[in-house]
Amino acid sequence: MSRVFMKGCEAIAEAAVRAGCRFFAGYPITPQNEIPEYFSRRMPEVGGVFVQGESEVASISMVYGAGCAGTRAMTSSSSCGIALKSEGISYCAGARIPMVYCNVARGGPGVGSIQPAQMDYLQATKASGNGGFQMLVFAPSTVQEAVDLTYAAFDYADRDRNPVLILADGVIGTMMESVELPPMRSDEEIAAIKDSKKKWTALGHRLGEHVDIEPGFWSTLDQQKWNEEAAALYLSWEKDLQWEEYCVEDAELVIASYGISARIAKSAVNLLRREGLKVGLIRPITVNPFPYKAFDRIDYSKCKAVLDVEMSIPAQFVKDVSVAVKDRCPIETCLCSGGNIMSRDDILAACKKILEA
Amino acid sequence: MEELVYTRTKAVFENAVSGFCPGCMHSTVAKLIGEVLEELDILDKAVCVKGIGCCGLQSNYFAFDNITAAHGRACAAATGIKRTNPASLVFTYQGDGDLASIGLAETVSAANRGENFSVIFINNGIYGMTGGQMAPTTLVGMKASTAPWGRKPEEHGYPIHVCELLNELTAPYYLERTSCNNPTNVRKTKKAIKKAFQNQLDGKGFSLVEIVTGCPTNWGTDALGSLDFIEEKMLPEFPLGVIRDKSKED
To answer: Would you say residue A271 has pLDDT above 90?
Structure first.
């Protein structure tokens, strides 16, 4: 372990390198340019490959190719760039090719604003491409957590032969924090990981042992069977659920929030607790699958409301919160959007309004 | 003593019955690719990245590693494979819609980077599997299901000449256009494929072989008629020959 002071994007890239990522392809877009820039100078040091793709569409297909050949591979982008990658993400899911990608999200549809936001929640968690596939989606709220989740993401991707998404935002990507970096995987470990995939990867095989990687089927029965197997995989992720529960036990108001909004909300909880107000926080870390059961831990006989705090207008995360709360108490919202960062004062005011009502 | 003068390539499944239309040349090219892989003794190194469309049907025949890329993205996927596994013999197998329309950016960019893989480009001037829509290489005046009165330059522009377009770039090593409309041209096509693969083995960079083929089903001809169409209509628009060969400069 080593402690360093790093910018979020660069820390994510370094975590990937340490996890054994040896191929990165990406296309410039703010606010994640430091990820491809970091890889471009870091990959040659570790015998990895960096390619600046001609587009997001091409970059994700390069990652698909590298993944088909057994290399731990990654791409990153932001919001509208991620939308372009949805073609290749779906192909990776359809052909069961492991890969990791990061969305350093920004605000609004179209080109949107380049400042931090959480406007891609439904795209990230429900439909990141055509065809109804699912992915493990992790939402870090600190640079340290972004590092740890990125490092683990490669293991999840290989375990499931499925894409994994790190859903960050412009704050996580661009702020600098002190982080403990995970250990560097050795060349031997990386070679062993690649070797373990030899049976299904397209590296060239002897006659009679050839591999055919297809992101689809001619036979409808084969496609249905594949869909059923994928659905079973997605159900198995219940064991991978992660969330943070903070001061929930006696809470009269519970904030539901994720990512950078949740970090700001947590500091609001601390201030309110100092004033004697019983406020708690539930912060999903896996946002797909969603830790619905975390909300069963709320004592609804005491809880006046759940306050959804997110940097999205219209609210998106609230749809999952609503499924989790199951009408056991009212749900209020505290929102901002367009690249405006959540204000702690707004959260404090929203909490007090509910508690004093 | 009997002398064995011909045997079918092991690179194409022995029990495969062609599902291609009568007169289609995908099966001819599959055979040529297989023979070249065997002659160069690289069958166990080969990875084909297939485009979308009739090209994808080759997975029913290729007895070596192959993957399907997203429509048009074969050159991008091949970049990912070859860069991380330089020991593999990587080639894309793409039609005209895949390579020259939806995938033009990926094709030009891979060629411009001088990627060390090979491209087999099947140009029959029409979308096959989807049912005869206009392709970027459809001839002027040629009817298509989305150009029912024929390709009009004022509305649709002109056929794209991929080899000539790529010849504007500095990096590509070898560009040749061949056909499979007669035995001489079939032999020339095989030679070109072999050269493209050998270039890759020698680390020379980007090679592309454009093969002008027929699509009797969507051209509305019979198999023999498609051979005439190639000779009389396609080849004047897409003249055969070596467009670029840097080995001459080596």
So the answer is: yes
